[in-house]
Each structure stands twice: as C-alpha cells, then as structure tokens.
Amino acid sequence: MTMTNRNDSMIRDIKLAPHGKVKLDWVKAHMPLLNNIETQFRKELPFNGLRVSICLHLEAKTGYLAQVIQAGGAEVAVCGSNPLSTQDDVVAALVESGITAFAWHDVTDEEYHMHLNKALDFKPDAIIDDGGDLVGILHTQRLDQAKEIIGGCEETTTGIVRLMALEKSGRLQFPMMAVNDAYCKYLFDNRYGTGQSVWDAVARTTNLVVAGKTVAVIGYGWCGKGVAMRAKGLGAKVIVTETDPIKAIEAYMDGFEVMSIGEAAAHADIFVTVTGNRDVIADGHFDIMKDGAIMCNAGHFDVEINKNDLAARAVTVREVRKNIDEYAMKDGRKLYLLAEGRLVNLAAGDGHPAEVMDMTFALQALSLKHVVRNGKSLGARVHSVPAELDRYVANLRLQTLGIKIDQLTKEQASYLNS
C-alpha cells in the first residue's frame, strides 16, 4: 500500500522511518568526509533557495548524501535509479527529515517512470543522476524544462556514455559533471567498491562457496578489474572476456585467463557481467553452460544478460531462493539468474562499502556546488571534475585515516616544472 506523505512524497510506509534512521546513523558514523562537508555546507549554504532532484540507488549512503545537499540549503527530492535497490525504510526516514521522495522497492516499469517524472515535476534547478535517466527524460520529453536547469552531476559509466552521445549530437542543454571519471571515484568506487559489494551480494544470495569455482568476468574496465581481483582473492579461478584488445592484454598480464565469451560459457561456474553493453550473454551461450551455472550482472541496466533468450530456452522458471530464479532447460540442466539480471550488488545487497562511497559522494556534493556556483557559464558540455576537487577529497580521506604524506619542496616543484 503506497501513501502520500505531508510533503507530497510517494512512499510505501512512513512507519518504517525509525529503522531507516538507524541505517542512516550507521553510515554517518563511517563517512567522515561527508560529515566534514555537511559542516561546511551548513555554514556556507551553497544551495540556498535552490531545488535539487537526485536519482540514485536509494539506500542509506545515498540517503545521507541527500541530507548533506539539504544541509546546504536546498529543497531536495529523490527517486530510485533501479527498481530493486530502493530500501523503503531509508526512504521513509528521508521523508521524516523533510526530503521529498518518490520511490518504493520493486516498482513496475510504469511506476519507475512515474517516479522519475515526479522528481522532475519538483522543478529542480540542478540534478544528480545515475545512468542518465533524468537527463534522458529532460532531453526527450521535457526540452523546455531542460533549458532551465543550471546543471548537474552524473554517477556512472553508463550515464557518461549517454551524456557524451547528447553532447556529440549538439543536443545537451546544460553542463554535467562526469563524477564517474574522477580519480577518487573510479579508482576506488568502481574497483574496490564494486569488487567487494558484488561478492558480498553473491555470497549472501547463494550461500555458496566461491573458492575452487571458475568465475567468468565479462568486461575488464575498472569495475571488472575489481570483481576479478576479489574473485581471485576468494580462491576462484578467473576467466576474463573482453572486446578491447588492450584491456585483454592487461587482464592477461594481471594473471587471468583470457578468452571469448563463446568459449568461457562452457567453463564457468559463475558469470559476472560488467560491460555497460547489451546481450553480452545471450542466445547460444545458454546452450553450452554447465548445469548449475550462476549468472549475475554488475552493470547499470538489466540488458547485459538477455533474459528473453534465457526464458525462451527454459521449460520452467521458479524462484528457488530470494533473488535467485532457476531456469530449467529442456536437456535437464538448471541455470540460475540472480536479482533478475539487475545490478546485483544493490538489488541483492547493500551496495558499496560506506567508506568507499564516502569519497564518491564527497565528490558529488562538491561537484554540484561547483556547477551551481559557476552556472551555465560552464557551457552545455560534459565536464571533468576539477583536479583540485579530486585532490581535496584525496587529502581529506588521508586526514581521516591519520596518514601524512610528503610534500614537494620548492626546489622539487621547480625541477618538475622546468
């Protein structure tokens, strides 16, 4: 049963708020960078008088980011960026704290797009997007509204790809910060965050051992590197598949076996897709998989594993554990798909560790401040996060860890610049 709260939020049950607040308190205790920025924002009020709509995976860490933006003076609305990753208790706690929310767990496609549109009906001055969903609607269905947006930030590789296509075609209407491409995002969030959270989710969902199994990692970008590294650490034999010859050589020299997906399909016990592309496991791949093979996706959209091809080959489909669907093939083999092929670390887990997301969300908050401060003078392009913000976040992280590093002397700096 959904309900409308006093601030016109659309949530499932406001009574869940106390449990969600406990989750928020936990991540706040482990996100010192955002603590620091929240204190700054309360003094500076960089978003005073502005409205900000945020489309992200609505769990506790994201919830705290929304509260930090709110602390900077903004009126904030949130909606989910994945049908299965929203945590209803966190959403309820955000509404209790004065944030407008349009979200609940396990939405239909119709409800999902309704929530996106509601977040835009909020009439934001700036946005934080994940996968380009808000930007996509603004540029296809709400072009007049798009022209009024000051700018925003994008969280994922998939979103950056969509933004670059808009920029290349000359259609992008406002500046967007490519937060995903900042060093303090992809080197840590994409690699260590994805690497750990994928296997957290797989282990929690299946209750099976990873050691001794053969794992196929489909895609060797920064997320794929993290997934492969953690699989190896858990004792798995790791196969990497790639379309990029340079990344394939990199995987080979990192000690992994490299082959085509057509070959890997017959060998792996667990498949993890991390490409951002569609149909990377499809069609005949299912015909040669081992009995008991497990598939999951760590890319943004649920298009990497072709569920239609899989279902067409199945005699029966049933849920055998929460977030595990069993597809029984005509020849008696059983193949398993986790979390409906959606982003497994959030659809079947709690997402990246809080300390990792602390760096990413520090960049998000500071990048949004940069966009709002500079406005459309930035130009309607995809912008890199300024190097000084990247270094500021890195130094802040070192401070919270109690780590001191060397500083260049004037002579050394002069030598390097000579």
For the largest beta sheet, what order do the strands appear in spatially? 11-10-9-12-13-16-15-14
Averaging pLDDT over every residue, what do you get? Answer: 96
Span of the ends, CA to CA: 67 Å
Tell the overall outline.
globular
| Low-confidence runs of at least 5 consecutive residues | none
Q: Please count the helical segments.
A: 17
Helix-strand category: alpha/beta
CATH homologous superfamily annotation of the largest domain: Adenosylhomocysteinase-like
Characterize the largest beta sheet: strand count, sense, and whether it forms a barrel.
Answer: 8 strands, mixed
- Going by CATH, the architecture of the largest domain would be 3-Layer(aba) Sandwich
What's the alpha carbon Rg, rounded to whole Å?
22 Å
CATH domain class name of the largest domain = Alpha Beta
Total domains: 2
Helicity range of the residues? 40-55%
**Number of separate strands:** 17
CATH topology of the largest domain: Rossmann fold
Portion in beta strands? 15-25%
